[in-house]
Amino acid sequence: MNLDKAVENKNSQNTGKRSTILWRLLKLVASTSPWMLIASTIAIILTAAANVLGSLFIERLINVYIIPLTKEAQPNFGPLLHAIAVMFGCYAIGFISNYLFAVLMAVLAQKVQYRVRLEMFEHMEKLPISYFDENDYGDIMSCYTNDIDTLQQMISQSIPQFMNSALNLIFVLGAMLALSWQLTIFTLIVFALSIIIVRFLTVRSAHYFQLQQKELGQVNGYNEEMLNGLKVIKVFSHEPEVEEDFDAYNESLKVASGKAHTYATILFPIMGNMGNLLYVLIAILGGAVAINRIAPLSLGVIGAFLQLSKQFAMPIAQISQQLNSIVMALAGAERIFKLEDQPVEIDDGDVTITKDENVKGAWHWNVPQKDGSVKKVTVKGHIVFDHVNFGYTPNKQILYDISIDAKPGMKVALVGETGAGKTTISNMINRFYEINSGTITYDGIPISRIKKDDLRQSLSIVLQDTHMFTGTVMDNIRFGNTDASDDDVYQAAHLSHADEFIHHLDEGYKTIIDGNGGDLSQGQMQLLSIARAMIADEPVMILDEATSSIDTQTEKLVQAGMDNLLAGRTSFVIAHRLSTIVNSDLILVLDHGHIIEAGNHEQLLKKKGYYYELYTGKKEIE
Ligand SMILES: Nc1ncnc2c1ncn2[C@@H]1O[C@H](COP(=O)(O)OP(=O)(O)OP(=O)(O)O)[C@@H](O)[C@H]1O
Asked: For this UniProt entry, which segments traverse the membrane (predicted)?
């Protein structure tokens, strides 16, 4: 199928979709500020009406005021000046209402932009983690930057100009018909020809504008990924390959963008000259008709008609140009709406958790009862997996028949090769993903019954990939518990042994951490995130390779602090260094999503199985 045919087909399919998006956009604008929309609609109607009235007045000016004056020996210019003042008044009203319209639309566009940005951010926070697995960060970012920008431009410029032009067109057409239907029909024939050309060009440029936005998303996505992995690229000297790939994306963007703009820019000169052509043709035709008395055409009518024909051709040129921007912005709006329509995390939990402000480390469940009352139950931290099966995607199972009984206060270690499913198990407890079958209970309550926010609030998680936010060291530790006092922060830092390096920082706890901890080592960030988890003081802890970047000496110290912290709390520890988990109450050995051995260190050593081989170095964790 050739491209032009494909473009036609795609466009006819998209037309319905576009009108839905446009309708939704209109509702969004209307609900953002109804009075602004009404005021701007009145202003734009007034603009078009005033401009056309001004042009129509030319006929009276010539026929009633100017021609009689040419026949008088001593002309009285008073009535003519009065008529010119009326005409000026018309144009002045048009100018003022047009100005008001532009200002209103600019303010309205800012309001919409602000609202969309906020809604998108709020919605994004509620999206399930799986959404971010499936979607590229660059694409999501592109939605926040390019798409919102084009949307704002569309509301503040393209739509106002489009409406202005469309209304002008209608009013001018009415005025032309009132002056001469013969000349109007002639104008419409020329107009129909120009529509065919406009349609031909807009269909093509619309396709390439959509492609351009898509390619831009890909370039941004690739850029971000490579920026994040810059160090890895340098280490492996992959700069030439990366550059080559980037070049390919960039080239596709250049091609799409070039074609989109070529079609769009051809449009304007064609339409501009169409106006001049129309002007000349009407002058010739009108003159011929009047001279040959084919139809009763006065000089005033021809003069006014010529003025109107200019006003008629201009909007067509503008409409065609604005249509491109609108189509481009609609593609952006579609992506914004798609993100806003993404289903948020399902949370039908009715059990909540409350921290007892008076007793340190004490939490309780609020369990609604059948009679409507709420039963308060102390949180113990008993986590049970019962025959749990799970896969991130429907066609690939990751966890098979997992059963774990983590009694309150137990330290449960998960060991196994890379990709065995250790992190996945922890992802099940905090409900980042939903299990396929089986049950997970927390103090006997199925976790699906617990409100997600509350469930996560009761779990402290320290990940291998630490993330710091821009702010002071103090703020970053306090992120775990915003109510914590400065002393609590110092204590947590002390317990996690983070205070040693913090004291060596230029401004100690007040040192600003930029971006994602740019100036800190990976190990130092891990110490901070352990301190952050410690301060949260939650009943259950999950440590996923939490100490993997810390040197063995410091790790031993951190371990001692952590063991104090973990005492009395249920904890799940994932560690490649077996030395950190030998004192666990229960060690689960995972292999390809199956638990193949379970017991404490001594029991597992006695078994002389997989764990024994790992521990004695006969087998290595890959
Ligand atoms: N978000 C995801 N989407 C799809 N598959 C995933 C996702 N996260 C992990 N997996 C797959 O699930 C399997 C188990 O991964 P998991 O991260 O649980 O392993 P792990 O034992 O924690 O490994 P490691 O020791 O490397 O951290 C792997 O095959 C991995 O490719």
From this structure: 35-58, 78-108, 185-202, 277-306
Predicted pLDDT at 12:
46
Mean pLDDT score, 175-201? 81
Mean pLDDT of 1-7: 43
At residue 293, does pLDDT exceed 50?
yes
**CA–CA separation, 129 and 432 (whole Å):** 6
Alpha carbon of 517 to ligand 1 centroid (Å):
25
What is the distance in A from the centroid of ligand 1 to the CA of 429? 15
Atom of ligand 1 nearest to the CA of 433: 1
Q: How, if at all, do strands 459-462 and 399-406 pair? A: unpaired
Mean pLDDT of the chain: 83
State the closest ligand 1 atom to the C-alpha of 420, by its place in the atom list counted from 1: 21
pLDDT at 290 over 80: no
Please tell me the distance from the alpha carbon of residue 233 to that of residue 246, in angstroms, as a whole number: 13
**Residues found in the chain:** 622
- For the sheet containing 411-416, what is the strand order? 459-462, 540-544, 570-574, 411-416, 586-591, 594-599
Tell me, what's the ipTM? 0.96
Architecture of domain 26-341: Up-down Bundle (1.20)
Protein residues with CB under 6 Å of any ligand 1 atom: 133, 392, 398, 416, 418-424
Average pLDDT over residues 216-237: 82
Give the start-to-end residue ranges of the domains of the chain. Answer: 26-341, 383-615
* Predicted local distance difference test score (pLDDT) of residue 517: 64
Cα–ligand 1 centroid distance for 388 (angstroms): 16
Q: Which of 396, 422, 433, 592 to mutate to test the pocket of ligand 1 (most atoms within 8 A of CB)?
A: 422
Q: Which CATH architecture has domain 383-615?
A: 3-Layer(aba) Sandwich (3.40)
